[in-house]
Amino acid sequence: MYRLTAVTKDYQTNGKRVSALTDVSLTIDDGEWLAVKGPTGQGKSTLLQLLGGLSRPTSGSILVSGEDLSRMPDTRITRLRAETIGFVFQFFNLLPTLTAQENVEAALVPLGIRSSERRRRAAEALDSVGLSDRATHLPSELSGGQQQRVAIARALVKEPRVLLADEPTGNLDEDTAAEIIDLLEQRWRSRGLTVVLVTHDNAIARRAQRVAVMRRGRLTIAPSQTSALPDV
Ligand code: ADP
Ligand code: ADP
């Protein structure tokens, strides 16, 4: 699904250069579940943003199904994000003035799907995360776990090939976190999705097939069952 070769990402802040990613090479297979872990400030979010086409590498190449993200025109990247890549975030990122149903439908607007079809598919997606009875609620009327379910429905309603999740359980209690991970795992198994999930939690990282451990912008791969995952 992805092939990263010698990817570096630098940021300029106050005239100083910070290297958020340094010489990262990585292949992520179709249908793989990869966890990314490491302490704060090591480049995990930067890696996810690059995989999602939300920013571009300073150097190196990122192939998505053979196409080079670092050379793609903006319009092509926008389309790739709309069709192929679903995002889930720590703080859900739902639009506060839209209902659960409208938040999910919003993901289908850029695909040019007509409104009756959008309504039908969004209702189905909400049903599949167990939230049919909350369709007309605003995000502020839902619990954290319910909001994250809406966000998952929004990410998956377009049937993407990739799901990128940045600490999707970081703001949830342990039981709710476990439910959310179970839900993601079900979807991953049933749809052949490729999942890249950033987490601080070793128990969650171990659910993945491989774990990418990030330290100061460098990445090493560990099998998920190793006893040597860092405690952060
Ligand atoms: P995480 O919660 O994954 O540890 P951070 O809190 O470090 O992520 O960063 C959250 C977001 O803010 C990221 O999208 C990152 O790109 C951006 N960010 C992090 N550090 C800075 C910074 N020094 N200046 C500007 N943006 C930053
Ligand atoms: P993590 O997700 O592991 O917490 P990030 O990818 O958010 O790490 O950040 C890695 C490094 O890059 C940090 O030093 C952070 O401050 C810096 N950084 C991230 N995003 C930005 C940005 N937009 N502008 C400047 N510095 C950033």
Describe the secondary-structure layout:
Blueprint: E1 2-13, E2 16-28, E3 33-37, H1 44-51, E4 59-64, E5 67-68, H2 74-84, E6 85-88, H3 100-106, H4 115-128, H5 144-156, E7 162-166, H6 174-191, E8 194-198, H7 202-205, E9 210-215, E10 218-223
Parallel strand pairs: 3-8, 3-9, 6-7, 7-8
Antiparallel strand pairs: 1-2, 1-4, 4-5, 9-10
The structure holds adenosine-5'-diphosphate (2 copies).
One adenosine-5'-diphosphate (ADP) binds at residues 11, 13, 18, 20, 38, 40-46, 214.
Cα end-to-end separation: 28 Å
Low-confidence stretches: none
Structure annotation, total helices:
7
Residues in helices, as a percent range: 25-40%
Q: What is the radius of gyration computed over CA atoms, rounded to a whole number of angstroms? A: 18 Å
- Roughly what is the average pLDDT, rounded to an integer? 93
| Biggest sheet details | 6 strands, mixed
Structural class: alpha/beta
Which ligands does the model contain, each kind named once?
adenosine-5'-diphosphate
Give, in order, the helices and strands: EEEHEEHEHHHEHEHEE
Task: Please state the overall shape, judged from the principal axes of the Cα atoms.
Answer: globular
Beta-strand content: 25-35%
Main β-sheet, spatial strand arrangement: 6-7-8-3-9-10
Beta strands, count: 10
Organism: Catenulispora yoronensis
Protein name: ABC transporter ATP-binding protein
GO molecular function: ATP binding
Keywords: ATP-binding, Nucleotide-binding, Transport
